[in-house]
Amino acid sequence: MKKTALMIALATGCLIGAQASAMTKDEYKAEKTKIEAQYKSDKAQCDTLKDNAKDVCEKEAKGKENVAKAELEQSYKPSNSHAKKVAEAKATAAYDVAKEKCDDMSGDAKNACQSQAKADHEKAKADIKAMVAKK
Fold first, then answer.
1. Rounded distance, CA 112 to CA 57, Å?
2. CA–CA gap between residue 99 and residue 62 (Å, rounded)
3. pTM of this prediction?
4. pLDDT one-digit tens code per residue, 44-76
């Protein structure tokens, strides 16, 4: 999937930029509060939807929050470990959303969708592992 390729490219950028300048504790707290508020806002927007569209929206909101928190940790205390967590959060978020989108399908199409989502996730995890091994 194109999203997976983009996600991996972004993860690579995060790992390369792992030693970016750190933020202050006050900036960290303010950004964390902003992330939490954004999640609440995103989740509230999901309440206007129904059925699986609502489930997909909620997975997207939660994934966005998890990625933002991981990126915040990387900005606050840059390290290869935090960079890896950013990449993992992006991979997991993409996987969770893809799996949820598969629920709109049925039969063989749903099975194929779920298999593709799992394969993309496994590839992303392998790519992350390979990037970390190079460090």
1. 22
2. 14
3. 0.78
4. 999 999 999 999 999 999 999 999 999 999 999
46 vs 68: CA distance, rounded Å: 19
Structure tokens at 19: 């030693």
Q: Write the CB contacts of 76 (distance below 8 Å, at least 6 apart in sequence).
A: 22, 23, 28
The CA-based dihedral angle spanning residues 81, 87, 91, 97, taken in that order and rounded to the nearest 10 degrees:
110
Quote the tokens at residue 36.
């939490």
DSSP letters, 104-116, are T--HHHHHHHHHH
Q: Which residues contact 34 (CB under 8 A, 6 or more apart)?
A: none
Residues 10 and 44: their CA atoms lie apart, in Å, by 28
Task: Tally the residues of the chain.
Answer: 135
